[in-house]
Write a structure and sequence with these properties.
The protein is mostly beta strands. It has one domain: monomeric porin ompg (Porin, Beta Barrel), CATH 2.40.160. It has 2 helices and 17 strands. A 12-stranded antiparallel β-barrel has the order 1-3-4-6-7-8-9-11-12-15-16-17. The N terminus is likely disordered.
């Protein structure tokens, strides 16, 4: 059991890559990942996950449409994950997201859109298998994620005005994200360090998301019962985004930083797993008029096949 735990925990995927606006930074069209621990299930599995986030608009002249003050943006998504393995070192993931976005004003729902998000394909290679140093064990994996421009990125409101890039369900861009994961453990607990960088191509509207940098440090604890296993984890996250570019010119009002806490629990029984995850931002540096991130949750179910 201990070896199984160490082998699987080293492929941890954590939090969203940090995009160019507050909405993006918490997982809208460019945000991509909102993960906890990968399930402690070997071989192939399928997972269905749903997550929701609210973004609070500041009360400025930039946050009004037709005389109505914007209050919140609500982002909800449903994702299908598929994973398969090749030996002990290689893992492959396919993520298929569908997104629902609502823009709220003082008079109720102002705009609602729905559509496919950007499909993600990720490859992991375990370059450092678990090695022991006394009572401690450590391992490391490298990941490379490719994002395809399958999502909608030119949706309009009821007055046929183009909605902001951060509110779209897709980016219209290809993206590439290398990732590094390092795990240090002792017994049934340990630490997981993760780092990532995500870059985007320019889409057909001559718009380009800013390069995103992110990292996290999580503490995990594994508990084994007679029929049920429990995985508890929690830690800190940090994300940074460079300014976005339109027609070759950088917008200095975009980009930003978010720091926060994350935590969750995974529950395993037989071939099934239930995933519960939450994120709370505690400090944000964003542009004037940009909506601020609030509490976020995710619920998922996985099963081997």
């Amino acid at each position: 059991m201990k070896k199984l735990f160490i082998l699987t925990i080293s492929a941890l995927l954590l939090w969203p890559a940090a995009p160019s606006r507050a909405c993006d930074m918490c997982g809208c069209s460019a945000g991509g990942q909102f993960f906890g621990m990968l399930p402690l299930l070997q071989g192939r599995y399928a997972s269905l996950r749903t997550q929701q986030q609210w973004f609070r608009h500041p009360q400025t002249s930039l946050n009004q449409i037709d005389g109505q003050a914007l209050t919140y943006d609500r982002m909800h998504s449903v994702e299908l994950w598929l994973r398969w393995q090749e030996g002990e070192r290689w893992q492959y993931f396919l993520q298929l997201p569908y997104r629902f976005h609502d823009r709220m004003s003082t008079n109720g729902v102002l705009s609602s859109i729905a559509g496919m998000g950007d499909v993600q394909f990720t490859t992991f290679y375990k370059w450092l298998k678990p090695k022991s140093t006394g009572d401690w064990q450590h391992s490391s994996s490298l990941g490379l994620q490719l994002g395809a421009p399958t999502g909608l990125f030119q949706q309009r409101d009821q007055q046929m005005r183009m909605l902001p890039e951060a509110f779209q369900t897709g980016t219209g861009s290809w993206s590439l994200q290398p990732q590094l994961f390092y795990t240090l453990s002792k017994g049934n607990s340990g630490l997981q360090l993760e780092a990532r960088r995500r870059g985007f191509t320019t889409n057909e509207l001559d718009f380009k998301m800013g390069t995103q940098w992110g990292g996290s440090l999580q503490y995990f604890l594994n508990r084994q019962g007679k029929r049920v296993r429990w995985m508890h984890y929690g830690g800190v996250t940090a994300d940074y985004a460079e300014a976005e570019t339109l027609y070759g010119q950088k917008n200095s009002a975009t980009g930003g930083q978010i720091y926060g806490f994350s935590g969750g629990t995974d529950i395993y029984t037989g071939k099934s797993a239930l995933h519960l995850l939450a994120q709370l931002p505690v400090y944000q540096v964003i542009g004037t008029g940009q909506p601020a991130s609030t509490f976020r949750w995710m619920i998922g179910y996985s099963r081997t096949f």
